[in-house]
Amino acid sequence: MLLHNAFGRKVPSTTNTTTTTKLASLQQLPWDHSHFLHRNTHSPISYKPRSSLIARCALTKQGQRFLTSIATVAAGDTSATSRMISKFIASSPKSVSLSTLSHLLSPNTNYPHLSSLALPLYTRITESSWFSWNSKLVADVVALLQKQGLLDEAESLTSGTVSRICLKERDLLSFYCNLIDSHTKHKSELGFFKTWECLKKIISGSSSDYVKKRAYKSLVGGFCQMGLPHEAESVINEMRQQGIKPSVFELRSIVEAYGVLGMFDEMLNGVVELESSGFLLDTVCSNMVLSSYGLHGKLSQMVLWMQKAKGLGTGFSIRTYNSVLNSCPTIVSMLQDFKSCPTSIEELIDILRGDEALLVQELIGSAVLAEIIEWNSLESKLDLHGMHLVAAYLIMLQWMEELLQRFTSGQYKIPAKFTVVCGLGKHSSLRDKPPLKSLVKELMLRTRSPLRIDRKNIGCFVAKGKAVKEWLC
């Protein structure tokens, strides 16, 4: 089967080439990829590395009111828009102004139809007394202008920035590295390769190892995010020719990029390359492999990989739970209705079949739950922050079994209070009824648990220690 990478190049899902042959072919890749700028491309694969998913910038209520009102009141009226922007900046704190701009600059903005306001909003912000220039913000604005086809405006802002910092090599490097990152988020190949040419000049003209290492790191990460791991490997070859040893970041990026494209032989070769370069197979890299298999529905390979990682002593983490369980269709389907999902591990395993059951068993056999439970004479706390809904669900089932085992073993002193922290749902798209809190509440009700929402902190469920023991024992 053939896949299209981010620029339409057809690549096989797996190959039988050896690592030696692959590296030999990579050495033949040209350093100059400017030909990409002048050809038509197919629809790209949506590439979002699991280790670096783009977070949507939090929009304040004040910023939300401003964007809503400007869309209705000043629609199509340039003068009215300018007045509303000036009034908003004058009456808003620095944090509100910047978060609103950042939201418009984000590829995941809730207001894509208002993205044209980013430049006038940025311009007005730069005139404020509190404004302090930073290359990251400028890079985000340039990348958005490039995406919108406002090439003259993008070039003007870029030129002005370069003129401002031209005598400071590291500042110029920081700007171009930020620009690479911004262009990759928008999947802008034109902007990416133009910036790549600028970084090449910095690399060739610098005598600083720090400058070269950071520039190479940005290029490898950028190529991988654009779905071009072959090109990223050619950059790594260039690094080695320059006497610069690739870091674990570059090598992990290669592993993840191949995995996302479904090129699993190359992904595993990347793991071998990472280990031969002196880096251990750690939890981060292991999770990248699991996430890649899960993305393509390869559950049996996930089972084998988890068993291999366990044999090597590589630990699991909450991110492992997230990646693995999000790939289990039966469990994901169960959580469409909190009122009917199983309320015990035994009941869950009985329902699951095949690889899904094996994956759950591998997870519950790990030490993750024991590592996140806090336990002392005053309080036992379980914090669900960072967990996706499916992960929190399994952790809750494990937690109830773990408490029963600790109570019956007689080796643990009963804490005065038990707390389950699920948060207020600030980062949920469903503000009024956050799914995680609703899940915990339903599980507690269905199992007749004494834990109830804390009056002092509505993001927590609490109960006295003796009541929890009576509930489970």
Automatic annotation (TrEMBL):
<dbReference type="InterPro" id="IPR036063">
    <property type="entry name" value="Smr_dom_sf"/>
</dbReference>
<dbReference type="InterPro" id="IPR002625">
    <property type="entry name" value="Smr_dom"/>
</dbReference>
<feature type="repeat" description="PPR">
    <location>
        <begin position="212"/>
        <end position="246"/>
    </location>
</feature>
<dbReference type="InterPro" id="IPR011990">
    <property type="entry name" value="TPR-like_helical_dom_sf"/>
</dbReference>
<dbReference type="Pfam" id="PF01535">
    <property type="entry name" value="PPR"/>
</dbReference>
<protein>
    <recommendedName>
        <fullName>Smr domain-containing protein</fullName>
    </recommendedName>
</protein>
<comment type="similarity">
    <text>Belongs to the PPR family. P subfamily.</text>
</comment>
<dbReference type="InterPro" id="IPR002885">
    <property type="entry name" value="PPR_rpt"/>
</dbReference>
<feature type="domain" description="Smr">
    <location>
        <begin position="382"/>
        <end position="466"/>
    </location>
</feature>
<keyword id="KW-0677">Repeat</keyword>
